[in-house]
Amino acid sequence: MDYLLLTITFAGALISEMLSIYADMIGCKTFLKKLLPGKSERFYFILDALLMPFIGTALAFFIMEPESMKTAFCAGLTWCGTLQTLGLTLKSETTTTIKESGGKTTVSSTTKTTKKV
User: Fold this and answer.
1) Are 77 and 15 in contact, with CB atoms under 8 Å apart?
2) What integer pLDDT is reported at residue 110 of this predicted model?
């Protein structure tokens, strides 16, 4: 195992985690709240900030198998985007309403964005 590439992957995942604060990432806070109930929000935030880069590094390093410092860093950075794609930040819900009045059918759509907790 190339520990330099693993370290570079971790650096990318750590930077991705630091930047994810602005994207309102949920990370593993929900799991941590169920595993360790009754702690402060600060506790969950700090534990999540420590765990997510390690999880991201493990997944990115072993799934993507980076072969250079550039690909290792990019593998770590993409971890945040992967979580966002999986829907762990904000959830969009679309509601379709069908109204019938006097033989006419009207379809309206409403989209709202809510935070998954």
Assistant:
1) yes
2) 55
Boundaries of every domain in the chain:
3-89
Gap between the Cα atoms of 109 and 81, Å rounded:
28
DSSP assignments along 68-80, one per residue? SHHHHHHHHHHHH
The one-letter amino acid code at 63 reads: I
CB 32 within 8 A of CB 44: yes
- pLDDT score of 88 more than 60: no
Distance CA 114, CA 19 (A): 20
One-letter amino acid for residue 39 of the chain? K
- Residue, of 75 and 99, whose pLDDT is higher: 75
All residues at 6 or more sequence positions from 24 whose CB lies less than 8 Å from its CB, including other chains: 89, 90, 115
Closest CA to 55 of 31, 34, 33: 31
pLDDT at 68 over 70: yes
Rounded Cα distance, 114 and 117, in Å: 9
Mean pLDDT across the chain: 76
Q: Which is more confident, 52 or 23? A: 52
